[in-house]
Sequence to fold (241 residues):
Amino acid sequence: MRIIKKEVCEEAPVELIVNGKKLVTFMCTPSHLNELAVGSVFSKGFIDGLDDIMMLAACDDMRMIHLRTRKPLTEEQYGLGGILATGCGSDVLLPDKLVGLKNNTSEFKISSEKIRLLTKDMFAQATLYQETGGLHSACLADVEGLVVCREDVGRHNAVDKAIGKGLFLGLDLSRHIVLTTGRLSSDMVLKAAVAGIPLVASRSIPSTLAIEISKLVGLTLVGRASRSTPIIYTYPHRVYG
Fold:
């Protein structure tokens, strides 16, 4: 019997320690951990930006990320932690968190053809996916092209990594979109809403709650983004052509 070696995707538990207390255990692809940590706490609204971070250090071998913020987290925020399983949204911001969100008034616009091309470019850059077929991709892009691309076994982690890298680069997120390979669930939309991103596009489709939340926060939601005619569910004024 001949054994054929196949590439597999790496998954590992990584603990995020915030102000000396465990906030969450990511089940993730253990790379770009600083970006994952920053993107996660930012997209939950726990910090307003990099200025709120006093210390950040990822220990790859120990599978641990230490982060210290200027303002302490509340017990409720720690309660949103736990174990984040691959592909699961257990860190979802509940709908009542919409109360503090501002309506996205970004005047960003992009063509439907550009969204399709950006989606194609995202898959071209997804090297780990091409090797294993078992990872999700997420990218930040502007009208010129892809700016940041990240991969992870969890679609939420991939988005957090991309947003985290965008913060490190000092990007104006109101002038960028998120592209993802994953389903657009309510928590994915909330991440973009908290980050101030005006448009989220995926090759997949959104959930009913994701559409409802997008309507409430002024976010443009695009599904089937790889098609020549993507489906625009909310705020179509940002997509032309």
